[in-house]
Every structure is written in C-alpha cells, then in structure tokens.
Amino acid sequence: MTDISPSSEIVNSGFISILGRPNAGKSTLLNRLSSMHLAIVSPKPQTTRHAIRCIVDDDTSQIVFVDTPGLHKPDSKLGEKMQESAWKALGDADAVLLMIDAERPGPSVLEREVCSRCAAYGKELFLAVNKADKVPKPSLLPIIARYAALHPFQAIIPISARTGDGVDVLLDELRKTLPMGPRYFPRDTLTDQTERVLAAELIRESALRELKEEVPHGVGVLVERFEELRNGEPAGEDDRDRVSIGAVLYCEKETHKGILIGKGGSMLKKIGTNARTRIEEMTGCPVYLELLVKVREDWRNRKGILADLGYGEEK
Ligand code: GDP
Ligand code: MG
Questions:
Q1: Cα–Cα distance list, 39 to 36, 55, 156, 190, 275 (Å)
Q2: Residue 98: partners with Cβ closer than 8 Å, 6 or more residues away
Q3: 161 Cβ closer than 6 Å to some ligand 1 atom
Q4: ω before 105 within 30° of 0 (cis)?
Q5: Helix, strand, or coil here: 307?
Q6: pLDDT tier, 106 (very low <50, low <70, confident <90, very high otherwise)
Q7: Cα 137 to middle of ligand 1, angstroms
C-alpha cells in the first residue's frame, strides 16, 4: 500500500479484507456500504493485489474494504494467481471479514481455510452471518455456536446486506479493531480510473450472474473506452452529462461465445442492461454501454491479456 499518500489527520483507519464463498453477499454488502457512505476508490488496481471496493469514511474513522479476487481451486494460471493474491491480501489486511450465507452456512473448506490462515497470521477475524432476513432467528444460534467452536472470532454478527439490518453493528465492531493512523484516502475521492475499473467489475458480475455456472471463471472484461461527455464533447467528471463505455468480454471457446451472446443477442442484451443500470448508479448520469464478445483461446494463461485485465505481475 505504499503508493498511497496519507493525510496527516489521525483516525481509526485501516484495511479490511472481505472474504466469502460466491453468493455469500459480498457485493451486496459493498453496494450497500458505498451507497450509504462516501467514496469508492481504486488507485492503480493493476499494480496492487488489493481490489479496493469501498471506503467507509466518517469523522473519526476510515475503513477501506479490499476485495479478494477469489479463492477457488487453482486450475490455471489465473486461478493460481488469484488465489495467491487473495491469501496475500488477507495477510496484509488489518483484519479480515468472513461472510457466510445463513442458508448455506458451512463451514466448508474455504471457511476453514480462512480461519486457519487467520490463526496462523495472527489476524483478527470477524464473521458476518449474512441473509439473516431469510432464516428464522433461532436457526442462527447453532450456526454461531458452530463457528465459535471453530475459531476465536473477534465478533460474530448476523446481518442482512439486503435490508441493512446489523450492518451498523458490524461497522462499529470493525472500526474498534482498526489502529489509529492516517486517513489513507482523502474524503470523497473518486477517480476516472476507479470508475473504469469498477465498470469492468460490474460488467463481469452481471455476466457471471446471468450465466449462472455455464461459463465458469471463463469471462474476462476489458474496458477499452471510457469517455466522459457533455453535449457529445469530451468533459470532466464534474460536468459530464453522459459516459460512453466500450468493453470486450473475453471467453475461452466459441461455444462460450454463443452462450454469452445468446439467442438473437438476448443474453448479451441482458448482461448489458443489468451492467448499465449498475454503472449508472455509480456515475450518476446516463451511460451508453457497448459490449463485444471475443474468443481468446486459453486467455487465462496469457500474460499479456492477464495484465490488461488487471491481474498484473506482483511488484
Ligand atoms: P457475492 O458472490 O458474495 O458477491 O454475493 P452477491 O452479493 O452477489 O449476492 C448473491 C445473492 O444473494 C444475490 O442474489 C443477492 O441479492 C442475495 N443476497 C445478498 N445478501 C442478501 C441478504 O442479506 N438477504 C437476502 N435475502 N439475499 C441476499
Ligand atoms: Mg460478488
């Protein structure tokens, strides 16, 4: 995190690594947090293994949530890289937030691994039992008991990322654990680079959501064009009235391309509509989104493309 110039103000500040199986609700929580609070920043994401997803800033604290690119089984260069980088991110963070789905609580291999890594690194670990709105309250107790027996969690907090229940309690707990230090980011920071990177992430998420398991981990998104416009002319973040984005979805096989495009383009349209809505929430202005699908066989093993997509070499 040396590429960040901190402000001199001293507050409770630090980095929280957020981990959890797919569908635990990490994105939902981050979306909620970034709508409740101020800034979303991602400085130089291509040179850091931390994907900074959201910053929760107030007068006395700054919590920087870092997302981890995924902890699935390493089955390719991308898989290994991602996994390596995910565990490293965990090692660097001030504390770790593990998120589980109350309907599918586990612990599975991932949750156990997070616990044992945190124990090994001496990292404080918090557990958010998400989707508490979906299960009867008494059924949370055995889940909490099971996890408490597994690891000495700093706190175990039932939440609903969807309704917001418990989220403030969770934030209070996280704040308490952070050391006194500088604000790592100026308040209200939001850069073009950030939006560009987040746009790619939102497109990728929309694709994965629509595709279910059909093209697992096989989609990479490259935002080739990110133009801020006012009356059709180049403009800045403050005076733009539209953002025009061109992105390429990379997949590994012709058959995947077919799935991504869908019958008469229907799938690509769905992905685009969903992604555009979410990107518009971020930019606060209308977005024109153009998506292309390209096959790059074995793209996950190609260094050049990996670097373009932000999975760069470690410094
Ligand atoms: P991620 O893979 O961990 O990022 O999970 P997502 O945030 O994409 O959430 C997966 C699914 O669970 C989505 O359909 C969310 O709408 C849903 N979800 C997330 N949090 C909650 C919650 O607190 N309650 C309910 N009922 N659904 C949730
Ligand atoms: Mg997600």
A1: 10, 6, 26, 6, 20
A2: 19, 20, 111, 114, 115, 125, 126, 127, 128
A3: yes
A4: no
A5: helix
A6: confident
A7: 18
Stretch 229-252: mean pLDDT, rounded?
Answer: 89
Residue 15's pLDDT is 87
Is the CB of 28 inside a 6 Å radius of any atom of ligand 1?
yes
C-alpha 27 – ligand 2 centre gap (Å): 4
| Residue 63 phi, psi dihedral angles, 5° rounding | -105, 125
Note the ligand closest to the C-alpha atom of 31.
Answer: 1
- 126 Cα: distance to centroid of ligand 2 (angstroms): 19
* Ligand 1 within 6 A of CB of 160: yes
Which CATH topology does 195-308 take? GMP Synthetase; Chain A, domain 3 (3.30.300)
- Work out the average pLDDT over 109-127: 90
Determine the distance separating the centroid of ligand 2 and the alpha carbon of 202, expressed in angstroms: 9
Q: How confident is the model over 196-236, as pLDDT tens digits? A: 878 888 898 888 888 876 675 668 888 888 899 999 988 87
Give start-end residues of each CATH 3.40.50.300 domain in the chain. 10-182
For residue 311, is pLDDT > 70? no
Note the ligand closest to the C-alpha atom of 164. 1
**104: Cβ below 6 Å to ligand 1?**
no
Look at domain 10-182 and name its CATH class: alpha beta
CA distance 76 to 204: 19
Kindly tell me if the per-residue pLDDT of 80 is higher than 80.
no
Q: In the predicted model, is pLDDT for residue 44 greater than 60?
A: no
- Ligand 1: does its nearest atom lie under 6 Å from the Cβ of 23? yes
**Of the ranges 8-12, 114-118, 240-244, 251-255, which is most confident?**
240-244
Which regions of the chain carry the CATH code 3.30.300.20?
195-308
